[in-house]
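Private note to self, pasted from the team thread so I don't lose it. C-alpha cells:
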C-alpha cells in the first residue's frame, strides 16, 4: 500500500471545483506500508482533504522510476522519481502547467535548495534543506516581490535575527530566535511603520514589561508578563492618551479591584474580579461622578439586589438578580421618587400583573404577563394610597380523624394545619374563612354534629385570618349552648365573626358588619340556606336566606354608605361542580339589590367564578363555591378547595373598583410521621414549583385534584385567572400582583 501526501495544497476535488494552490512550504512527502508502483495516478484513486491529498494504490512491488499525479482531465499536478521506494532527484508541483514548487531529494530526504512560486511565476519561498531539515537562510515573499519574512534555520529550528515586512515594504516585525523560540527584544509595526507592540521574550514566552500602541502612536496598553501570562498591574488607554481601565492580572486573569474611565477621563465603572470573573460589589457612574448603578456579581453574573439611579441621584429602579437574570420584585421610579412601574420577574421574564403609574403616582395601566409576553392589558387610574386587599377561603371542617390526629396527650395541636400558608394569608389586609364547626366543648365530635377543640380556632387566628363567618348548616349542631359557647370562644380569642348571634339585640348592634381600611369601607353580609333541621333556639339568631330579612339588611348596609357590599353565602347542592338553580336565583337577586361581591360555599366542590361588567360599567364578582378549605374528605373534588383574592382600589374620580382578582387552588395533605398524622393545607403552586415534594401516592391524588379543578371547573371562569406566585418573596406562599 502506498500513501502519497501532498502537504500544503488545495487541489481540484471530486466535484471538479478548483481551489488554487497557494502554499507549498515543506515539499512533498511519500509514506508507505508496503511497496507499490503506478506510473500515472488519477483523480478517481484519490481521497481529497482540505489541504492535503491522500492516494492509496494496492501493489506489492517497490516504487521505482518516475511517478505522475494528474487530475481527472489528465492535467499534470505533481511528478517525481523513486528508487527502491525512496524519493530522489527533483520533484515538482504544477498548476495549469505552471511550476509552483521544486525540491530535490536524496535517499528519501529533502536536500539542497527549495523554491516555491506564485501562479504569476514570482518567487514565493526559497531556502535550503540539509539532512532533511531546513538550514541556512530562508525567505518568504509577498506576491508583489517584497520580502514578507526572512531569517536563518539551523537543523530545522529558527535561530538568530528575523525580520518581516508589510506588502508596502515597511518593517512589520523584528526579533530573534533561539532553538525555534522567540528570545530577547521583539518589535511589531503597523503598515505605516509606526510601532504597534514591544517587549521581551525568554524561551518563547513574554516576560517583563510589554507595551502596545494605537495606530496613532499613542500608548494603548502596558503591563507585565510572567512566563507568558499577564501578571501585576496593567493599564489601558484611549487613543487620546486618557486612561481607559486599570487593574491587576494573576495568571492571565483579571483579579482584585479594576477601574474604568471614559475618553474624557471620568470614571465610569469600578469593581473586583476573582479568577477573571466579576465578583463582589460593582458600581457604575455618570460623567459627573454620581452613582448610576450599584450591585453585586458572583462568578461573572449579576446576583442579589441591584439599584440604578437617575442623574439627579434619585433612585431609578430596584431589582434582584439570580445568575444574571431578573428575579423577584422589580420597581422603577420617577426622578421625584414616585413609583413608575412595579411587577414580578421569574427566570428573567416578566410574570403576573405589572402596574404602570403616571408621574402623579396614579395607576394608569395593568399588564398581565406570562413567560415575558403580555397577555392582558387594562387601562386604569387608581390612587394607590387607598387600597384594601382581601381573600376569602372556603369551609373549615373538623372530622373525627382530624380530631384524633390533632390529639397530643391532653391537648389538641392544629398549628401544623397552616405551615404552608401563614405568610400568604397574613399578607392581605383582610382574610375571611367559614368556620363550619361549633366550639361546643367536649366531647369533641365530627360529622354529623361537629364540635371542635378551642385550639382549632386559635390556630386559624394565628394563621392570619382576620374574621370568620359562622352562618352555615352546622351552626346549631350543639344547639343553643354550642352556638353561644362558639361565640364566647371567638370573642375570647379576639376573632371578629358574623352570621350567628346570641340574640336580636346583639345582631342589631353588630350586623351588617362594617370594616374600613385605608379609606375603603366595606359592608359584610352572610347567610345560610338552613341548619340541617335543627331549629335555632330563641333568643339566638342564625342568618338565614330569607328575602325580606336580606332586603332589610342590604338597605341598612347602604345607609352606612359603604364603597362595596360583600355577601358570603352558604348554599347550593353538595358535590356539584356547577351552581344549581337555587344558587343562580339568589345570586342574581343579591346583585340586583346592590350587592357587589357574592361569594359562596357549602357544596364541598369548587365551582366557577365570574367577574362581570354591567351595562352601566359597574363590576360584580360572583364566586359560586370555594369548596373545602380543610377537611378529612378524600373523595374526588373534596380533598381540596379554592381561595378568591382581590383588591378594592379607589380611582381618581372617587369610585372604588375591584382589581387584582384571581384564584388559588390548595390541596389537603395528610403527612404521616410514625403514629402521628398532620393535616396540612397545601397550595398547589408550592408543589408545582418544586418547593414541596410528594410521594408517589400523594402525587397521583394531587394531580387528579389539580386537573379536575383547573382544567374542568376553573376553565369556565369569566375574567378570574389563577394567581401567579413568587418563589423569591415568601417563606410559604405569597401571591404577587
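Design output:
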Amino acid at each position: 500500500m502506498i500513501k502519497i501526501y501532498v502537504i500544503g495544497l488545495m487541489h481540484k476535488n471530486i466535484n471538479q471545483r478548483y481551489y488554487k494552490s497557494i502554499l507549498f512550504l515543506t515539499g512533498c512527502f511519500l509514506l508507505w506500508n508496503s511497496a507499490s508502483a503506478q506510473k500515472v495516478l488519477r483523480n478517481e484513486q484519490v481521497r481529497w482533504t482540505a489541504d492535503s491529498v491522500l492516494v492509496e494504490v494496492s501493489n506489492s512491488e517497490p516504487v521505482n522510476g518516475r511517478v505522475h499525479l494528474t487530475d481527472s482531465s489528465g492535467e499534470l499536478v505533481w511528478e517525481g522519481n523513486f528508487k527502491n521506494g525512496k524519493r530522489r532527484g527533483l520533484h515538482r508541483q504544477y498548476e495549469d502547467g505552471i511550476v509552483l514548487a521544486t525540491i530535490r531529494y536524496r535517499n528519501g530526504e529533502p536536500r539542497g535548495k527549495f523554491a516555491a512560486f506564485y501562479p504569476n511565476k514570482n518567487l514565493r519561498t526559497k531556502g535550503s534543506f540539509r539532512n532533511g531539515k531546513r538550514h541556512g537562510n530562508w525567505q518568504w515573499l509577498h506576491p508583489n516581490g517584497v520580502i514578507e519574512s526572512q531569517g536563518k534555520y539551523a537543523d530545522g529550528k529558527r535561530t538568530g535575527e528575523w525580520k518581516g515586512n508589510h506588502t508596502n515594504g515597511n518593517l512589520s516585525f523584528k526579533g530573534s530566535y533561539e532553538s525555534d523560540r522567540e528570545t530577547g527584544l521583539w518589535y511589531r509595526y503597523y503598515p505605516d511603520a509606526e510601532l504597534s507592540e514591544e517587549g521581551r521574550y525568554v524561551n518563547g514566552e513574554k516576560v517583563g514589561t510589554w507595551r502596545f500602541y494605537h495606530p496613532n502612536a499613542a500608548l494603548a496598553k502596558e503591563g507585565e508578563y510572567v512566563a507568558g501570562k499577564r501578571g501585576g498591574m496593567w493599564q489601558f488607554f484611549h487613543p487620546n492618551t486618557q486612561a481607559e481601565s486599570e487593574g491587576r492580572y494573576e495568571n492571565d486573569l483579571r483579579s482584585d479591584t479594576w477601574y474604568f474611565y471614559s475618553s474624557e477621563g471620568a470614571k465610569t465603572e469600578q469593581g473586583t474580579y476573582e479568577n477573571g470573573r466579576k465578583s463582589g460589589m460593582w458600581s457604575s457612574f455618570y460623567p459627573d461622578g454620581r452613582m448610576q448603578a450599584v450591585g453585586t456579581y458572583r462568578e461573572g453574573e449579576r446576583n442579589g439586589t441591584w439599584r440604578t439611579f437617575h442623574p439627579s441621584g434619585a433612585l431609578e429602579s430596584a431589582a434582584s438578580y439570580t445568575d444574571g437574570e431578573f428575579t423577584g420584585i422589580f420597581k422603577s421610579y420617577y426622578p421625584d421618587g414616585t413609583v413608575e412601574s412595579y411587577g414580578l420577574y421569574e427566570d428573567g421574564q416578566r410574570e403576573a400583573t405589572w402596574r404602570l403609574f403616571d408621574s402623579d403616582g396614579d395607576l394608569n395601566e395593568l399588564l398581565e404577563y406570562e413567560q415575558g409576553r403580555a397577555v392582558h392589558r387594562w387601562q386604569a387610574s387608581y390612587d394607590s394610597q387607598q387600597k384594601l386587599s382581601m381573600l376569602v377561603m372556603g369551609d373549615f371542617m373538623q372530622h373525627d380523624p382530624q380530631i384524633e390526629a390533632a390529639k397530643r396527650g391532653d391537648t389538641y395541636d392544629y398549628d401544623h394545619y397552616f405551615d404552608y400558608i401563614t405568610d400568604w394569608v397574613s399578607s392581605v389586609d383582610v382574610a375571611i374563612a367559614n368556620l363550619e364547626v361549633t366550639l361546643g366543648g367536649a366531647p369533641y365530635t365530627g360529622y354529623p354534629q361537629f364540635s371542635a377543640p378551642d385550639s382549632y380556632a386559635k390556630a386559624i387566628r394565628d394563621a392570619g385570618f382576620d374574621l370568620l363567618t359562622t352562618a352555615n348548616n352546622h351552626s346549631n349542631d350543639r344547639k343553643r349552648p354550642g352556638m353561644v359557647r362558639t361565640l364566647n370562644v371567638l370573642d375570647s380569642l379576639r376573632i371578629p365573626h358574623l352570621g350567628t348571634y346570641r340574640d336580636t339585640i346583639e345582631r342589631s348592634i353588630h350586623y351588617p358588619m362594617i370594616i374600613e381600611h385605608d379609606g375603603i369601607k366595606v359592608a359584610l353580609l352572610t347567610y345560610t340556606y338552613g341548619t340541617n333541621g335543627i331549629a335555632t333556639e330563641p333568643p339566638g339568631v342564625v342568618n338565614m336566606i330569607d328575602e325580606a330579612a336580606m332586603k332589610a339588611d342590604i338597605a341598612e348596609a347602604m345607609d352606612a354608605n359603604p364603597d362595596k357590599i360583600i355577601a358570603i353565602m352558604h348554599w347550593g347542592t353538595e358535590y356539584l361542580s356547577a351552581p344549581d338553580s337555587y344558587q343562580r336565583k339568589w345570586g342574581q337577586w343579591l346583585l340586583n339589590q346592590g350587592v357587589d361581591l357574592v361569594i359562596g360555599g357549602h357544596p364541598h366542590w369548587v365551582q366557577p367564578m365570574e367577574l362581570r361588567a354591567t351595562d352601566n360599567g359597574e363590576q360584580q364578582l360572583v364566586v359560586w363555591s370555594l369548596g373545602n378549605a380543610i377537611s378529612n374528605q378524600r373523595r374526588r373534588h373534596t380533598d381540596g378547595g379554592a381561595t378568591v383574592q382581590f383588591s378594592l382600589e379607589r380611582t381618581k374620580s372617587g369610585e372604588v373598583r375591584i382589581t387584582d382578582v384571581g384564584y388559588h387552588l390548595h390541596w389537603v395533605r395528610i403527612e404521616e410521621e410514625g403514629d402521628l398524622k398532620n393535616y396540612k393545607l397545601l397550595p398547589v403552586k408550592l408543589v408545582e414549583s418544586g418547593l414541596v415534594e410528594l410521594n408517589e401516592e400523594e402525587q397521583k391524588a394531587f394531580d387528579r385534584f389539580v386537573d379536575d379543578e383547573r382544567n374542568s371547573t376553573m376553565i369556565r371562569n369569566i375574567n378570574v385567572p389563577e394567581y401567579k406566585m413568587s418563589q423569591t418573596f415568601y417563606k410559604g406562599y405569597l401571591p404577587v400582583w
